[in-house]
Amino acid sequence: MTTARKLMTADELMLLPDNGFRQELVRGELIEMPPPGKRHGDVTMGFGAALYNYSAANDYGVVGDNYGYRLESNPDTVRAPDLAWCAPGHPDETAEGYPERAPDLIVEIKSPSDTPRMVAERAQMWLDFGSREVWYGNPEQTTVTRYRPGQEPEILSQDDVLDGGELLPGFSIEVWRLFRRRR
């Protein structure tokens, strides 16, 4: 005899106590990940500062970190990117709880345990749910891989410039600056 496992809802996830782990739902199943290390956090802040400064200077969009988005219901999927940016007028820009539409831009920072396959699958998941771009920062290689729907991934090295294209008009930064203050 098999026992059916009770699936968790997004509302139940929201009520879980903070246990020090990042908690997400994938089709109702709780996924817990250990907190990332210092380097991961430092790089996330570099990307976050660049996006925040751009948004504030241009009064254009909203950037947030590490909060969940409800991407599917019944069973619920709630995923939390390292950073998210929503363009002006994004319907869930000011939503309470878990917004129910993927952000326009996702930034994920590679953790030491991430494999290339895991990185590509997570980027594709965000694109499949409606994100317009995903930037994957790799602290080990000082690269940013840019994913866009219907295009091959573009890998930018530390000597390249990451621009915002149509999504973030006028945004540009040397890739190395996202990973450290000095060259």
Core attributes:
alpha+beta, 6-stranded mixed beta sheet, 183 residues, globular, 4 helices, tt1808, chain A
In the CATH hierarchy, the third-tier topology is known as tt1808, chain A
Classification by helices and strands:
alpha+beta
| Major beta sheet summary | 6 strands, mixed
Strand order, main sheet: write it out. 3-6-7-8-9-10
What share of the residues lie within helices? 10-25%
Proper CATH architecture: Alpha-Beta Complex
Total helical elements: 4
How much of the residues is beta strand, in percent? 25-35%
Q: Please report the first level of CATH classification, the CATH class.
A: Alpha Beta
Mean pLDDT: 91
Number of domains: 1
Query: What's the CATH superfamily, by name?
Result: tt1808, chain A
Give the beta-strand count.
Answer: 12
Please write the string of helix (H) and strand (E) elements.
HEEHEEEEEHEEEEEH
What's the gyration radius in Å?
A: 17 Å
Instruction: List low-pLDDT spans.
Output: none
First-residue to last-residue Cα separation = 62 Å
**How would you describe the shape?**
globular
